[in-house]
Write a structure and sequence with these properties.
The protein is mainly α. It has helices at 2-6, 10-25, 43-57, 60-68, 72-96, 98-167, 171-179, 185-207, 212-239, 249-257, 259-268, 270-301. GO terms for molecular function: syntaxin binding.
Length: 329
């Protein structure tokens, strides 16, 4: 109601108050000044005034005032006086709290500057985060690519590692093949490894692998040295059969223990294997021939149980002479 009085509804309130006073007292509270009215105004302005008056009359406070017969001008003066009093009190409170308000203003200014700096820091942090995000994405892509390359290298490594292990000729093998006696267990183990490398080198040569040429010369030299030592060892054992009164079963068992030597010769040097076989067959055939010849000669000597001596008489029937081959048990 105070806003309606103070913001431009004074003319309407005066008109309504005068009408109310006229209706209540039978006369106008203030003489109406009809000279200020413009009777030639357009109907649009009159309609707008009527709408404004009708809106004020529909107000709850106006309705209550019209019902109770309150003087609206007096009520507006009371409201205006109350507003002035509240305004003065507010001014006094503001003056009283001026220092606190100034301090609050300073604090707000400081907070504003701090917030401004924080905004700058957050903006910088946001830009850093965006750059970090792009870097993380790049690193993720690189990680995926490196993981793929790692898997490919591991797959290749499993095949290359076997190839390299087969191609490498360790120094232990070289020293054992060259210096160790053939009767040593270590020589037999390294001979197995050398045989595997020889077979692997042959397989690579069929595939035309260039890495085969790196070890072919070393493997061939070791093969020649091993064949030479094995040939000498086996021939010595075979020649030992020829000694008189030799138990040939002992060197035969020794050769049986090192039967891989002949397998190695048969796989890598067939001429030497044939030489050793022929020498063994010739030696054993001579040994068995001598044994059977001696055995058959001794059998001929024991054909008769009793042999004639100087005490036997001529013309006497020799009943004691018997054929041992025809004798039945």
């Amino acid at each position: 109601m105070a806003e309606a009085v103070t913001e431009g509804g004074a003319a309407s309130v005066d008109s309504v108050s005068g009408a109310m006073a006229y209706l209540q007292n039978g006369k106008s509270a203030d003489p109406l000044n009809l000279g200020d009215l413009d009777l030639t105004t357009d109907e649009f302005i009159l309609d707008e005034v009527d709408i404004h008056i009708q809106a004020n009359l529909e107000d709850d406070l106006v309705k209550e005032a019209l019902k109770t017969g309150v003087d609206l001008r007096q009520y507006s003066k009371q409201v205006e006086t109350e507003l002035q009093r509240i305004e003065q009190a507010s001014i006094k409170d503001y003056i009283k709290e001026s220092q606190n308000i100034a301090s609050l203003h300073n604090q707000i200014t400081a907070c504003d500057s701090i917030l401004e700096r924080m905004e700058g820091m957050l903006s910088s942090f946001q830009s850093d985060l965006s750059s970090i995000s792009s870097e993380i994405q790049t690193l993720q892509q690189q990680s995926v690519s490196m993981n793929m390359r790692l898997k490919n290298r591991q797959a290749v490594r499993s095949q290359l590692s076997q190839l390299v292990d087969e191609l490498v000729v360790p120094s232990t093998m070289i020293s054992v093949i060259l210096d160790s006696p053939v009767t040593e267990q270590e020589f037999l183990e390294q001979l197995h490894e050398l045989n595997n490398k020889i077979n692997f080198a042959k397989e690579l040569s069929f595939r035309e692998t260039l890495a085969c040429s790196d070890i072919q010369d070393i493997v061939d030299r070791l093969k020649i040295k091993a064949v030479s030592k094995i040939r000498e060892f086996i021939l010595q054992k075979i020649y030992s059969f020829r000694k008189p009164m030799t138990n040939y079963q002992i060197p035969q068992n020794t050769l049986l223990k090192y039967r891989f030597f002949y397998q190695f010769l048969l796989a890598n040097e067939r001429t030497v294997a044939k030489e050793i076989r022929d020498e063994y067959v010739d030696t054993m055939s001579k040994i068995y021939f001598s044994y059977f010849k001696s055995y058959s000669g001794r059998l001929l000597k024991v054909q008769y149980e009793d042999v004639a001596d100087k005490d036997d008489l001529m013309g006497v029937e020799d009943t004691a002479k018997k054929d041992i081959l025809l004798k039945h048990p």
